[in-house]
């Protein structure tokens, strides 16, 4: 069937343009290097915009490019209003933004304001003395009652940081502790202080005035803490789990509404806001994204990417059950159906490669990458493509800890060694779920360094770039890249993809994910076998036409039975009343 571009959809307003958009995430360090220093940069991104346009995406989200000591690859910012020299200059940025706009795309910045770098001037001032005017911009507390500063257990709370170890570090200048939910080089800002909030809002307005099209807000649901700072329940590591005391805290909705008022209200222009929210429930997500509440356009939730975490956390992985994945994705589709809006993602710079995690990156690499993409992109919500996912990039065979760069993985490895546990077990977990899997350079071609740099990449290139690379996929209609192109094109041309309602089918099937999308007399039926064995399912597709499939030739259905080969995915359509 031929598809024609449809006119403006009538169910959404201009302000909700992001409901039919597709976003592409760039992790700048690993995207493209222009000057041979082995680190991706802004001119590198500018030189690869053809790739993004060819893919058909609407919006680029740039992971942080601000000035930073790079303790956490830029998620530790020392100047919010400048570009780190490793990535380029503000002039490079303006040039990139102009190119992006000229090509009809938008650009969204990463906003990291739960914490700054400890090298940010705000923190330097704050730590300098107990009566500095910026003292209260961060969380300073004395040692626990009855303890001397520096004593074991003297930290003001027992919370364990996301990156191992306590969330408090003693600062010798004043003998008090400061809070950091992440690394000691990432002190948490005190959002209770209105000066902090207004400094952040002013900075955001400065970027909007410069022309950016919105923000992805890093761990934004952690900014409102329980100010009584209670201890957390004891966790596996011996430290306590403080999460309930700082996630979705008492003032979080108030802060989001204030930010909306102070930054976005009354401005012309089309913005996108997405809040990254570990631990967010669908009930909270509805509140955050209900347009009537003026908070955020959408959130990144974590339910589906935490399904394979075991009792000891992410480095204690357990096998993922397709039935759990189906139930989770289906729940979010259902619950954010009318009020609120979903963001859709399988991977990002914090997660392993989606084809390795949810698919089968061996025998069924191409089929599973395309099946997963089909399932995700035919959902209701705004899809995010993480760089390299569109060519099916896989996890990386890291041999030893020397191959790793990520602070989280390195800390976990060091802790394992220090406590006398099995280092090979830690490496196995890191290969499985570590963040560096997603951070190796984008594989542009089969040449040395995968076409990423003329020098030596800051983290080793995945050896499979010899056969897995963008150049080899552009002209191959069966490639992962071309499948992504077609999925994105469907969202552009068929309003039912962006706006249709969602109904789960075959809910109890252990391997096949199937659902219907419906809007104004058009129905899509999506069916995907998410397993490496053949599946036979009872599904009547007689009234449908096949719109897209990832395996050709496919076996037609007989008597209401569908036979699906491993990782086979099909999209059917009908416009007749059913
Ligand atoms: O990967 C994780 C650690 O297990 C996640 O919990 C991650 O820390 C969480 O998703 C927050 O991520 C964001 O903030 C971090 C930064 O390291 C991540 O890269 C960023 O996406 C601190 O800024
Ligand atoms: Ca560079």
Report on this model:
GO terms for molecular function: oligo-1,6-glucosidase activity. It comes from Promicromonospora iranensis. Belongs to the glycosyl hydrolase 13 family. Strand 12, helix 8 (282-289) and strand 13 (298-300) form a beta-alpha-beta unit. By secondary structure, this protein is of the alpha/beta class. Strands 13-12-9-5-2-1-17-16 form an eight-stranded parallel β-sheet, covered by helices on one side. Strands 18-19-20-24-22 form a five-stranded antiparallel β-sheet. Helix 5 (194-210) packs parallel to helix 7 and helix 11 packs parallel to helix 14 (480-493). The protein contains 15 helices and 24 strands. The chain is globular. The longest helix is centred in the middle third of the chain and has 17 residues, at 194-210. It has helices at 42-47, 49-55, 90-102, 121-128, 194-210, 243-246, 252-264, 282-289, 322-335, 354-357, 365-377, 407-418, 423-433, 480-493, 495-499; strands at 23-26, 59-62, 66-67, 79-83, 106-111, 140-141, 168-171, 176-179, 214-217, 233-234, 240-241, 272-276, 298-300, 309-310, 313-317, 343-344, 382-386, 501-505, 512-519, 522-529, 535-538, 545-549, 561-564, 569-574. The two termini are 19 Å apart. Calcium ion binds at residues 33-35, 37, 39, 41. The site of calcium ion (CA) has 6 residues, from loops.
């Amino acid at each position: 069937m031929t598809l024609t571009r449809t006119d403006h959809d009538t169910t959404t307003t201009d302000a909700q343009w992001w409901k039919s958009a597709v976003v592409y995430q760039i992790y700048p360090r690993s995207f493209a290097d222009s000057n041979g220093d082995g680190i991706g940069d802004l001119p590198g991104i500018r030189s690869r915009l053809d790739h993004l346009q060819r893919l058909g995406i609407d919006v680029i989200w740039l992971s942080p490019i601000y000035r930073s000591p790079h303790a956490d690859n830029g998620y530790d910012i020392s100047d919010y209003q400048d570009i780190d020299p490793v990535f380029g200059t503000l002039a490079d940025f303006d040039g990139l933004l102009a190119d992006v706009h000229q090509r009809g795309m938008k650009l969204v910045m990463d906003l990291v304001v739960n914490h700054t770098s400890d090298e940010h001037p705000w923190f330097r001032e704050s730590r300098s003395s107990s009566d500095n005017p910026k003292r209260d911009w961060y969380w300073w507390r004395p040692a626990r009652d009855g303890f001397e500063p520096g004593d074991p257990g003297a930290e003001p709370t027992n919370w364990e940081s996301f990156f191992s170890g306590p969330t408090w570090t003693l600062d010798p200048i004043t003998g008090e502790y400061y809070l950091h939910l992440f690394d000691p080089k990432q002190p948490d800002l005190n959002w209770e202080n209105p000066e902090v909030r207004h400094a952040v809002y002013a900075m955001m307005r400065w970027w909007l005035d410069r022309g950016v099209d919105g923000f992805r807000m890093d761990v934004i649901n952690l900014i409102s803490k329980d100010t009584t700072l209670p201890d957390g329940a004891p966790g596996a590591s011996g430290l306590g789990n403080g999460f309930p005391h700082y996630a979705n805290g008492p003032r979080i909705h108030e802060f989001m509404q204030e930010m909306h008022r102070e930054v976005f209200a009354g401005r012309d222009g089309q913005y996108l806001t997405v809040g990254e929210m570990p631990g967010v429930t669908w009930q909270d997500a509805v509140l955050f994204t209900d347009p009537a509440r003026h908070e955020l356009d959408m959130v990144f939730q974590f339910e589906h990417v935490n399904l394979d975490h075991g009792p000891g956390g992410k480095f204690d992985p357990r096998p993922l059950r397709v039935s759990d994945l189906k139930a989770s994705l289906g729940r979010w589709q259902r619950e954010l159906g009318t009020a609120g809006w979903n963001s859709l993602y399988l991977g990002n710079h914090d997660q392993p490669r989606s084809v390795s995690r949810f698919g089968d990156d061996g025998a069924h690499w191409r089929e599973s990458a395309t099946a997963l993409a089909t399932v995700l992109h035919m959902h209701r919500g705004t899809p995010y493509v993480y760089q390299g996912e569109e060519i099916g990039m896989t996890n990386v065979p890291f041999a030893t800890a020397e191959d790793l760069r990520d602070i989280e993985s390195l800390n976990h490895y060091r802790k394992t060694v220090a406590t006398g546990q099995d280092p090979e077990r830690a490496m196995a977990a890191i290969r499985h779920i570590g963040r560096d899997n997603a951070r190796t350079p984008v594989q542009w071609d089969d040449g040395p360094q995968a076409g990423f740099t003329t020098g030596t990449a800051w983290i080793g290139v995945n050896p499979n770039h010899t056969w897995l690379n963008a150049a080899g996929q552009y002209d191959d209609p069966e490639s992962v890249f071309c499948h992504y192109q077609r999925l994105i094109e469907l969202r552009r041309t068929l309003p039912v993809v962006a706006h249709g309602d969602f109904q789960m089918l075959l809910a109890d099937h252990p391997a096949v994910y199937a659902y219907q999308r419906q809007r104004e007399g058009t129905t899509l039926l999506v069916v995907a076998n998410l397993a490496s064995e053949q599946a036979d399912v009872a599904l009547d597709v007689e009234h449908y036409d096949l719109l897209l499939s990832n395996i050709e030739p496919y076996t037609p259905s007989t008597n209401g039975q569908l036979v699906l080969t491993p990782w086979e995915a099909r999209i059917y359509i009908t416009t007749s009343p059913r």
